[in-house]
Amino acid sequence: MQLRGLGVIVLLWLAGCQLVEFSPNQAYVPARERSLTAQNLRRLEVQPADDTLRFVFVGDTQRFYDETEAFVASVNQQRAVDFVLVGGDISDFGLTREFRWVNQRLNALRVPFLTVIGNHDLVGNGRAVYQHIYGPLNYSFQYQQTRFICLDTNGREYGFGRQVPDMAWLRQQLADTAGSRRTIVVGHMPPTDEDFDPELVSAYTAALRSCPQLVFHLAAHVHRFTAGQPFHDGVTYLTTYSLQKKRYHILTVWGQREFRLETVAYGAGS
Amino acid sequence: MLQHILSVALVAAPLVASASPISSVAAPDTLGVTTTASIPRATSGNSRPWYRPNHVVLQTGGGLGMVAGGAGFTLKDRLELDILVGYVPEKYAGSALSLASAKLLYSPWTLPIKDKWSVKPLTVGGYFSYTHGTINDEEPNQYTKGYYWFSTDTRIGALLGSRLSYALPPTASGYARNLSAFYELGTNDLYILSYAQNRKSLSPADILVLSLGLKLDI
Question: What superkingdom does the record give (chain A) (predicted)?
C-alpha cells in the first residue's frame, strides 16, 4: 500500500519535471512556468518608474542556448534598462522543451522579459505551447506613457488568407490612445517580408500610418539590423539581430517620438 | 538536480548490470540455469504464423503518447520490433495527437534472478514516430520548398533501457509467457541536435525522455 503511494508520487514527479514526455509537441508545463507574459507585466508594474523608457530588443533566440546565457550576462550589466523584448522565434521547432530552455536562461535577467510569437514558434503545436507558456498571441500593455502593441504577424504560418495579423484588433489598439502619449508596435515578421500576408501589407501599413503617436514598428526574423521608412510614409521600421549574432539593441524613447538606438556587441566575435 | 541524478542512475543501471553477466558466465559455480524461469523460450514459435505477434505492449511517455499500446515480434528472444499507437489528449498538447511508432530493440542478455523472475539488464534501440493531428500541419503550398528543413511530425530517436520479467504459467498451446515491466530513456533527432550545438549550456539529462511500460507475451 505504502509502496503504491510512493509509486504514484514518483510518477507525478516524473511527469512534473517532464522526464516522462508524452510528445515533444506537448503543451504542458508546471503552473509556475505558465502565463509568463502576465507574470512579467506584473513585475513591470511594480518596477519604480523614471522619466525615460529604455528597453533591450533582441530577436530569434532559437536553438542558441549558449548564446542566450552570454546575452543575459551582458544585459544584466546594463544600467537603467526597464525590460527585455524578445522579437519572436524563441524556439526553433515549436517544442515545449525549447521554450523552457530559453526561459530558464532568461529568468536570470534582472529585469522582466516580454515576447512576441515568431514563425518558428508556430510550427507543430507551437501556437498552443506559446499560449500555455506566455499567454495571448496578441496583447498590449502600457508603460512609461507608452502603449506597446505586441502581435502575431506570421501570416504564412496560417496559410495567409487575411487572418494574421488580426487587423480589427490592431486598429482598435492603435485607436486606443487614452493615457498614453506614444505607441510602439512589435511583431516578429516585418511587413516587408514575403512571409507577411501579402494581402494585408497595405492595410497594415496604412493602419500604422494613421496613428500619429506611433514611434516605430519593431520586428525580427531577418536576423540583422535594418532601419528605414520602406513605405515612404514617415513610419520607421526597425529590425534587430538574432541572438546568435551576439548583438542586441537598446532603445531609449522620450518626448513625443524621439528615440535613440544603441547597438551592444558582447562575447567573442560572431 | 534530482532529475539529473535519476537520469544518470537510469542510464548507468543497464550498463552496470550488463557488465555482470559476463563475469557470472565465467564463474561456473554461480551459473543459474537450473531455475524454473522459462529462459530461453524453448517453444518460441515454429508452429505459429509469422504475422502473429509475440507480445503486446502498453507504455506511457517516451514521446510516443500519454498512453501507447501495440504489439511486437521477437526474434531469438533478443531482437524485437514493436508497433505502437499512442494518444495525447488535447488538454496536454493543445490538440489531440495520435502517434504511430515503431521501435526496434535489442536486448543481448537475459539473466535469471530467482524463482520466476528474470531481468534483461540492457536494451538498446531506436524508434521512428509519426504524429497526426498537430495544429500547424504543413499544408501543401504553405511553404516554399525547404522552408523548414526538419519534419514537424516525423521523429527518429534512440533509447536505452532495462526490463524485469515474471514468468506466468505457459499458454494453453505451451508457449512460455512473461509479464515484463520496462523503462527506456531516449531522445529524439531535434533534441540531439539542440544538445550538440549547445554543449556548454545543455546537459545530456536535459534531452532525455523516460518511458515506462509493460510487456506481455502472448
Answer: Bacteria
